Each structure stands twice: as structure tokens, then as C-alpha cells.
Amino acid sequence: MTNFFKAALCASIFFLAGASAKVNRTNAVLTVLEQHKDLTAFYELFNSTGDGIGLPEPAFEERFNDNNVGLDFTILAPTNKAIAKVHGLTEKLTTAAGYPLLTTLLRTHILPGKLAPYDLYNKNVVSIEGFSIHIDLKGDITTNSGLTKSDVRAGTQARLLKDKRGNPIRVPASNGVVYKIDNILDPLLTYFGEDSARNHRSLPTIKHSPSKSMKDILAADPETSHARELLYTVAPWFPRDRLDMSFSGRRAKENSKVVYLVPSNEALKSFTKVAEAPGNADATRFFLMAGFGRMDGKHIKGRAGFKLEVEGGRVMNAEVEKRECGSNGCVWRIGRVIDSVYGLL
Questions:
Q1: Contacting residues for 211 by C-beta, under 8 A, at least 6 apart
Q2: Which of 11, 95, 231, 288 is deepest in the core (most CB within 10 A)?
Q3: Is Metal-binding among this UniProt entry's keywords (predicted)?
Q4: 200-221: b or e for each residue (b if 16 or more CB lie within 10 Å)?
Q5: Within 13 Å of residue 11, how many CA atoms lie on the same side as its CB?
Q6: CATH number at residue 14
Q7: Nearest-angstrom CA–CA distance, 7 and 70
């Protein structure tokens, strides 16, 4: 994950230094999304980052939508139809809790430079977010090819839409170009990897430790030491206070439904020191806490309201390695970082 975190950090530094005093957004790439009737839903995701000001936040508007900056960009833009087919996704991504995931996905769809089709085909292009994008000669798009050892091959995630002549549909912009695609890309699945349901058919037996809190359970497991270290850096209140809290009185029974899916040291091996940097803290915090929530039938309601499906011995893309339940909830150690949009895109 080093490349990904470096990219996020660079984006933060860019705006600490300051961008243009007045944005010239005429026909720039985000303006093209806003004005193209088939791409407005994707623009609204950018716009939602502006917290109601009517424009995307400066990290998007000033960096990617200002002709004064003098840089060109290529956007792979999912159509309105592509976004509409993922029911409820927009609502979750545009919550305050979902913001780090939203910005990660948005920057994945932005490539540096004004790229012609021959610049894209059969080449690996690194997105602004730091993930690798590959488009084959048919227009099939994959992410992070060959990067992470995974039980399941992710395959094609989206396709370039083409005109009647078989050419990619290109919408020109003053500072780049926009290509239409038929689906939202999920770089997290190919970055974190996926454990096969076939290889992990059942959950491990629960170890009951009624004298321990979730905080105690987490602290006692040497295989989650990296997660603890990162949490105490980017969200110290979570391991120190939240994992030590419990419901009482009439709500005492709710303790048994609280679950924290904590990534193992192996799952977090790419979360280096750079992950702790201020510019990366939001993303690190989201991924570490994506699996904290409440058990509800065969799923866990995780961060930002995402349903984390339990199937066989997995939750979403991750094998469950160990389960231990204490006085205020259960800690499940998992072998991958959770991809909250797994199976949705």
C-alpha cells in the first residue's frame, strides 16, 4: 500500500501549499461531468465532498477542475446507469463516515495527463490515487494486475463504452478528456485481495472470555499488534475507550452483537509508517475500523452503514482466522483488510 498512501499524502500537501486564488472551471473535466446528461450522477459524488457549498471540495475542484493549474487529466467516468444499478451506494459513500472511501474511489477514476486511446490500451497507468489501471485492446478494465496474492482472480471490473464505429466514447475537456465506462472500479478488492469461500467453509469456534473486554482481547493477540499500533496513532479513542465500553441494564444483551473485525499483521504488511501520516490518517482510520459494527443475522453492519456479509468462513473478501468474545463484544481476526464495497460493484 506504500504507493497508495504516498499518493494520498501528495494530494494533501498540494493543498496545504495553496492552489489558484480563483478557479477557472470553464469546460474543465469536472465541469464536463456536471454538464453531460449521462454523467451527472458521477459529478454529484464529487460535488458531495463540498459539504453543501455547491462545488466539490478544493482537493477536487482546485486540483482537477481549474484551467489555471496547467495540468491535464483523464477521467474514467461511470455513467448514470452504472451508478444507479448499485442501490444505496451513493447514500453510504456520501455520509461523513464514508468520506475517506468516497475520495479513494473518486481519485482512482482520475488518471494523469490527457490520454488518447493508444495511451491507454495494453498499458498500466497509475491513477491519481496510486492504484494501477490496465485497459486491454477490447476496452476491458482491470485494476492492480498481479499486485496482491489472492485466492480469487478479480477479472474485468468495467469496460470502455464505444460508439457505433467501435471507438471509445470520448468527451473533450479544456484540461483533459473524459471516457465513459459501464461500471465503478473497485481497486480495493485487487489491492487487499480475496480469500476463496471454497477454501474457507466455516467460521472458527468462538473462544469465550467473559472476564475480558474487547480491548483486552485485542491487546493479548500478538497477531494484531500492527493494527493496535496504527489505531493508537490515528484513532486512539477507539482501542482505549470504545473497545472498553459496554451496554448495561436493559441493553446488556446488545453486547453479544458487537463485533470488531481486526486485520492481522499479515493483512496490514503494506501499511507502513506512511499510513500514519496526517494526510493519510482518514483513509487508514476507515480501513482499520471498516469492520466494527453490529451483528444482524448473516451480516455485520459496518462503518458508514455497509453490510458486511458473512459467508462460510469469510466476511466479505476476508477469511476469519480467530473469534474471541468478551464481556462487551467479540473480536474476529481476519486475514485481509475489509473491502466495504465487495460484491456491490
A1: 326, 327
A2: 288
A3: no
A4: beebeeeeebeebbbbbbbeeb
A5: 29
A6: 2.30.180.10
A7: 19
Gap between the Cα atoms of 343 and 331, Å rounded: 23
Question: pTM for the whole thing?
Answer: 0.92
> How confident is the model over 142-153, as pLDDT tens digits?
999 888 888 888
The Cβ-side half-sphere exposure at 186, using a 13 Å CA radius, reads 22
Residue 260: closest CA among 311, 233, 224, 226: 224
Question: Residue 275 is placed in which grid cell?
Answer: 499510513
> Which of 141, 169, 192 is at the close of a domain?
192
**The length of the chain, given as a count of residues:** 345
Span between the terminal Cα atoms of the chain, in Å: 21
Question: Are 174 and 232 members of one domain?
Answer: no
- Same-domain pairing of 179 and 255: no
107 domain residue, yes or no:
yes
